[in-house]
Amino acid sequence: MVPDDPIPQHDFAGRLDRAGAAAAESGLSGVLVGVGPDLEYLAGYAAPALERLTALIVRPGGTPVLVVPELERPRAMEAPGAANLEIVGWVDGDDPYEQVTRILGSSPGRLAVGDQLWSAHLLALQGRLPGTAFEVAGPVLATLRARKDAGEIALLARAGTAADAAFAAITGEGLGGRTERQVAASLAEHLVEEGHETADFTIVASGPNGASPHHEPGARRIETGDVVVLDFGGRLGGYCSDITRTVSVGEPQEEIRSVHHIVREAQQQAFEAVGAGATGAEADRAARDVIERAGFGEAFVHRTGHGIGLDVHEDPYLVAGNDRPLVAGNCFSIEPGIYLVGRFGVRIEDIVALTEEGPRRLNEATRELVTVD
Ligand code: ZN
Ligand code: ZN
Ligand code: ZN
User: Fold this and answer.
1) How far is CA 132 from CA 28, 114, 135, 185, 333, in A?
2) How many whole angstroms separate alpha carbon 120 and alpha carbon 126?
3) Residue 214 CA, ligand 1 centroid: distance in Å
4) Cα 281 to ligand 3 centre (Å)
5) CB 67 within 8 A of CB 100
6) pTM of the predicted model, to two decimals?
7) Phi then psi dihedrals of residue 168, to 5 deg
8) Which of 16, 92, 103, 112 is closest to 67 using CA atoms?
9) CB 121 within 8 A of CB 326
10) 101 contacts 128 by C-beta, under 8 angstroms
11) Per-residue pLDDT tens for 326-347?
12) What ligand has the least distance to the C-alpha of 312?
């Protein structure tokens, strides 16, 4: 994959239409989102998260309005979705919440707000609109965002390929004798070299640290005989990568081989379940059954997977209780793990796109237990 292929154009007008229609269907007067992935999804605007209010208001049937600090207007107008919006600026000293209430009218019945709208903004709005029922926009927007179109899947696939290449680069360098922090820094460089705009996280968890799923890489020096969990990702065209591979520094002991084999089998069973039309809960169950049967049920301490897109964790979740069927366009991780406290951990994670033709892995780095120097 050529890293500088053009980023596909997204259909912002269609997304805004669908959001307006979903708001109407839910009986909402409008949906208001602040800075973050919802705004990026609807308008292509990756705005700075600051204390000044930036808010996109989508109402059934109306033109979407973007309320921005006047000094951000030039940036907002450059957003690829800006042509679909009416842009309303406010200057320092104005009351931006007045602008919002003017747009929404004095008594919107029910208003959904983006899950990531700052509470300072929400509380100010609630103060201005005492008769309005506020709710989270998650159920409306998350469903839209969870169904990726071909352009989004192409970007997730490119991000996945770039993450695979970063894995190949780091294993080629060898890990023994380096600290976790050094390996993490090197991984971040590889993510960017391979085409990501940013490296967002680089978990390097060696030896006993591997038993902490979100271990923060530290000063521990990696030695021969260690098992190392590498879980990392970045952003390409705004879309996230997220891959985990567990490697052995030097020849692995038999127990490590056997635990790795169980995790790999659990990962494969969840993959096959999503191809067979499973719900999020059933996919989680498919992975968990393998690990429980092997006697490690208590050592698998997290859900099997999360949706991924503009956010690294978003709908749909592969978790007990998610009884909604997975549908074509859903993209999510499958990442079972076994964590043996004080000893080591193993996790294997791929991003999977559910297409009309079935599930497709967006990571192709080998899932075999790799031995590195
Ligand atoms: Zn995680
Ligand atoms: Zn991960
Ligand atoms: Zn993940």
Assistant:
1) 11, 16, 10, 48, 37
2) 10
3) 6
4) 17
5) yes
6) 0.94
7) -60, -40
8) 103
9) no
10) yes
11) 999 999 999 999 999 999 999 9
12) 3
